[in-house]
């Protein structure tokens, strides 16, 4: 098999001689990561829209006192964060070529999926229980942060390890 020149996944500015098998493996990893981010992003956007409709037509949030009103609105907005991050990564994420670094990216992806689930649950549980921040929303925010940071660090770490 002839070696091929292909993108290493970090900005695609650096080219190296890699095998066709490595290219296919990178493409499969990239596609599965992108598809997961897209699916989770779309589902979270749907949950965001549905929660907005629920607040407008069922819960009548505008008639609530300031405390419960703020709980509904804040938990509603919390859902938008991981939805947008997931949709953005569905377009731009590329697996890093270094053998260990894609694990960081997958860890970040898993944290972002968990963040989406937790922040949707926070909308469903916290305002109806009339409780402020609980472990659900706190963990949702922290996992959103951790997943985002891992996706920011991974390509930079890949570049550092490659040199």
Give a short synopsis of this structure.
The chain is built from four helices and two strands.
What report would you give on this structure?
There is one protein chain. By secondary structure, the protein is mainly alpha-helical. The chain has one domain (36-162). It is built from four helices and two strands. A two-stranded antiparallel sheet has the order 1-2. Strand 1 (4-7) and strand 2 (15-18) form a beta hairpin. Helix 1 (20-57) packs antiparallel against helix 2 (66-92) and helix 2 runs antiparallel to helix 3 (101-129). The chain is elongated, with a radius of gyration of 20 Å. The protein starts with a strand and ends with a helix. 36% of the residues are buried.
Considering the chains and any ligands shown, give keywords for the structure.
single chain; 163 residues; mainly alpha; two-stranded antiparallel ribbon; 4 helices
Q: What is the secondary structure topology, with strand pairs?
A:
Elements: E1 4-7, E2 15-18, H1 20-57, H2 66-92, H3 101-129, H4 135-162
Helix pairs in contact: 1-2, 1-3, 2-3, 2-4, 3-4
Structural domain tally: 1
The largest sheet is: 2 strands, antiparallel
> Order of strands side by side in the largest beta sheet?
1-2
**Which H/E pattern describes the elements?**
EEHHHH
State the secondary-structure class. Answer: mainly alpha
What is the arithmetic mean of pLDDT? 84
Terminal Cα separation, in Å? Answer: 27 Å
Helix content: over 70%
Q: Any idea what the shape is?
A: elongated
Radius of gyration: 20 Å
Proportion in β-strands? under 5%
Uncertain stretches: 1-24
Count every beta strand, where a strand is a DSSP E run of 2 or more residues: 2
**Helical element count?**
4
């Amino acid at each position: 098999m002839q070696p091929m020149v292909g993108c290493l996944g970090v900005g695609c500015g650096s080219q190296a001689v890699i095998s066709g098998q490595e290219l296919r493996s990178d493409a499969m990893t990239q596609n599965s990561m992108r598809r997961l981010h897209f699916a989770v992003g779309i589902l979270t956007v749907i949950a965001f829209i549905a929660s907005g409709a629920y607040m407008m037509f069922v819960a009548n949030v505008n008639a609530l006192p300031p405390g419960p009103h703020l709980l509904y609105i804040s938990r509603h907005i919390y859902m938008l964060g991981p939805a947008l991050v997931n949709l953005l990564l569905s377009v731009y994420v590329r697996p890093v070529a270094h053998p260990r670094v894609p694990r960081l990216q997958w860890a970040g992806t898993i944290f972002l999926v968990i963040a989406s689930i937790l922040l949707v649950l926070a909308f469903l549980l916290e305002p109806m229980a009339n409780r402020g921040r609980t472990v659900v929303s706190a963990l949702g925010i922290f996992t959103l942060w951790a997943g985002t940071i891992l996706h920011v660090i991974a390509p930079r770490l890949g570049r550092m390890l490659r040199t």
